[in-house]
Amino acid sequence: MTDNVSLGMPKLPAPPYPADVHARLAEDAKAIIDRYPDSRSALLPMLHLVQSEEGHVTRTGMAFCAETLGLTTAEVTAVATFYTMYRRKPSGDYQVGVCTNTLCAVMGGDAIFEELKAHLGVGNDETTEDGKITLEHIECNAACDFAPVVMVNWEFFDNQTPESAKKMVDDLRAGRTVEPTRGAPLCTFKETARILAGFPDERPGAVEATGGAGPASLVGLRLAKGEKPQHRIVHPRGETSGQEGE
Hints:
Blueprint lengths: L18 H15 L9 H12 L4 H11 L3 H8 L13 E6 L2 H19 L5 E2 L5 E6 L11 E3 L2 E3 L4 H13 L14 H8 L22 H6 L22
Parallel strand pairs: 1-3
Antiparallel strand pairs: 1-4, 2-3, 4-5
Helix pairs in contact: 1-2, 2-3, 2-7, 3-4, 5-6
């Protein structure tokens, strides 16, 4: 018997964007598609584009991508759900990702993540009530020589501690200026999504801002160039910088 089984109702088609929003996004979409020989290759930046509109990839956004690129909604959904950089639900102005992969974890990443959860009153992939911060753990930020690392809207905050991370999120929630360790100045998640869609960052000085790799990251490059490496890249705990190379 199936009396207690609820099959549910099928979802209605996603509502379209308002006419003015659709026209604006269509113009931006054309600029993206024109970069590629095959329009379907534009799907990833197109998903960033619709994410910049509402802060996450909605059913309306996926339908817009499908319609514009001549794809099925199933094809678009398969891509949007595969990559974690595409949010599937409303998120905060600042996406705070704590690396909990091996090196960052043992250097303090796990402690940072646990303390931020308690400090913000949210769990993994949850957003604070004021809509400012979405907290998540990230498997790797590809910045192991700066461990433990926290990223905010994909900008680096290196060599963090629970205390520095808590101060950083407090400053973000209070609207105070927060500067990444390296890279471009922070902007909101929606603004970041538009930049990732391939549109220029027009903020003064943003393009010029940069940050290089740390010493440990460059050892292989220096060896390839025939340079003599340092004898010691990372100081053992308790030693001073004056002992390097001895």
